[in-house]
Design goal:
heterodimer; A: 314 residues; alpha/beta; B: 254 residues
């Protein structure tokens, strides 16, 4: 048996879901939400993942991140209950909720829907700070490059939502195919003697058959992963160059957690992304988890806070 | 003279034997990981099927996207060239040929057995058989059944995704929301055909229109093509062997 066949056989045997990335949730122990602050929530229903971020007076209180289900409404409800877990808070305590993402109009508790472009700009600005000018958001079914001002307002953007090459879903499909858990894909793509050439930079389906030929020629799985990660990076770089790169650079979304892709992007463009840490020193100090997947929902929660204040003012 | 044509496609390998202008054997198998070996075995099998000695095959022609893996051969012909040759052989009146394979789809304008113009999509699986195959898998029906059931749909649903990977997720959502299988199948076939029609229209569509390649066996796709082109389309008896036929013809000419 070739290494590939062995990997495939093991996969089938264990019936593991190699695409499955880690779901998460977090509550800020230092905030008492009952103290009377403005409670705002943002729910980002993406095609692959859903996040809910809850803020009290604009400070991060809790979040939940999980895989989207078959329906937008159901995903929104599950996202909300994940974030609310153990907090004693209910949806009725929210003063304002904004829905965003691909399923933004399906969020039942949202009073308003805001585009994911606007929310990601706002959220990334909040996470990385006002000096971020270019944001690469690598989502499940799309890839966006946003140029923003110091307030996180969108100046220009480019987006690929037509094709899985360069999107998280493509990476999931590919990891399943080569039999590598998606959370290990980044590390393993660097465990190669030599950086290989990229596979087909276009279609994920074709990249898979190209990968099959490479394995047939005797390539090891890690090299094939490296070749696919490089192709993904090159694909994204094309999009980035279309809107232009102004430092500083931030990266958000699920693939931001995959250094196999992000570091190859950095090499291609000759620039670095800012470290994945909070701009807010207090958050950094308290070791609040820096989850690149919550940027959209965080932006939505910030918009929700502003809308709640406006509502109160009336 | 007996010649063999080997077509190593994105998914299957097809082998055809030709004796003095008549097809005497056809056989195919999935390429898998050892395409060269599979192709060689298929040639032997074809010879057995036709009750001829393997040594009596005088010349071998190869074509297809994986032809670099082919066993020793005499003639090497492009996919476009072999399709044009094979299509003209089975249907001399064909002016437009649509080849819908597993990993690419193309349209050819043919004249006297050669391609005068062509358009191809080999960058993206949308519009190729792989798209249909993954959808059939999601619906848990065979490819042939997939075509047939789509004909019974009364209410096609739209599929928004262009990408085969995204469309599969969309189909899974449709299945979860209890959309009837036939409506999903119809939607997939319509989406496939829509892409192919838009592409082939770029080179102009002239009658007769012949559809070849594995997808030509999907009757739902053919119906969708007819609607898209607003003209009838023809299908040869063994549409997936047209490339192999062209390669065998090329081998017998030289």
């Amino acid at each position: 048996m070739t290494a590939h066949e062995t990997a495939r056989a093991e996969t089938q045997q264990e019936n593991r879901e190699l695409w499955r990335w880690e779901e998460s949730r977090w509550t800020n122990p230092d905030i008492d939400w009952k103290a009377g602050g403005i409670i705002s929530a943002g729910i980002d229903v993406g095609s692959v993942s859903t996040q809910c971020v809850i803020m009290v007076d604009g400070e991060l209180y809790a979040y939940g991140s999980l895989r989207s289900g078959s329906g937008g409404e159901d995903s929104a409800l599950r996202g909300a209950s994940r974030a609310l877990e153990g907090t004693g808070m209910t949806v009725d305590d929210w003063h304002y909720c904004v829905g965003t993402g691909y399923g933004r109009v399906l969020v039942p508790m949202a009073k308003k829907a805001v585009t994911e472009i606007a929310c990601h700009g706002r959220g990334a600005n909040w996470m990385y700070g006002p000096s971020i000018r270019t944001i690469l958001d690598m989502g499940g079914q799309d890839c966006k490059v946003l140029r923003v001002d110091e307030r996180g307002k969108i100046v220009n953007f480019a987006m690929n939502d037509k094709c899985a090459a360069g999107a998280g879903r493509g990476m999931e499909v590919f990891c399943d195919f080569v039999g590598v858990p998606i959370t290990e894909a980044g590390e393993r793509s660097f465990q190669v003697d030599e950086e290989p050439r990229a596979v087909s930079t276009t279609c994920v389906i074709f990249a898979k058959s190209e990968a099959a030929s490479l394995l047939r020629e005797g390539w090891d799985v890690n090299s094939v992963l490296a070749a696919y990660s490089l192709a993904t990076a090159q694909r994204v770089v094309e999009l980035m160059q279309r809107v232009g790169l102004e430092p500083e650079l931030g990266i958000t979304g699920g693939i931001a957690k995959n250094r196999g892709v992000s570091e190859r992007i950095e090499k291609e463009i000759g620039m670095k992304f800012n470290a994945r840490t909070w701009h807010n020193p207090e958050y950094a100090e308290k070791e609040v988890p820096f989850d690149t997947q919550i940027a959209g929902a965080a932006g939505a929660a910030l918009f929700a806070k502003a809308l709640a204040e406006k509502q109160k003012g009336k | 003279m007996i010649t063999a044509g080997i077509d190593i496609g994105g998914r299957d390998i097809k082998v055809l034997l030709l004796q003095d202008g008549k097809v005497i054997a056809r056989t195919k198998a999935a390429g898998g990981f050892e395409q060269g070996k599979v192709a060689e075995n298929l040639v032997t099998k074809a010879a057995d099927d036709a009750s001829v000695q393997r040594e009596h095959i005088e010349r071998i022609g190869v074509t297809g996207s994986g032809k670099k893996y082919a066993p020793p051969h005499d003639v090497d012909i492009t996919e476009i060239g072999s399709i044009a040759k094979g299509a003209t052989f089975v249907m001399p009146s064909a002016k437009t040929v649509i080849d819908s394979g597993a990993e690419d789809s193309r349209g050819l304008k043919v004249e006297n057995g050669t391609a005068k113009d062509f358009v191809t999509n080999d960058k993206c699986a949308a519009g190729a058989g792989a798209f249909c195959e993954s959808m059939a898998r999601a619906l848990e029906v065979s490819l042939e059944e997939f075509g047939k059931i789509s004909l019974t749909s009364a209410k096609p649903v739209p599929i928004n995704a262009q990408c085969a990977v995204f469309a599969e997720s969309e189909v899974v959502s449709l299945i979860n929301s209890k959309t009837p299988t036939e409506d999903i199948a119809r939607a997939v076939n319509d989406a496939l055909a829509e892409r192919v029609v838009a592409m082939v229209k770029r080179i102009g569509v002239e009658k007769d229109v012949l559809v070849v390649g594995g997808l030509a066996k999907n009757v739902g796709y053919l119906e969708a093509l007819k609607r898209g082109f607003q003209t009838d389309v023809m299908v040869p008896e063994y549409p997936e062997y047209i490339g192999a036929l062209g390669a065998a013809l090329a081998a017998s000419e030289q």
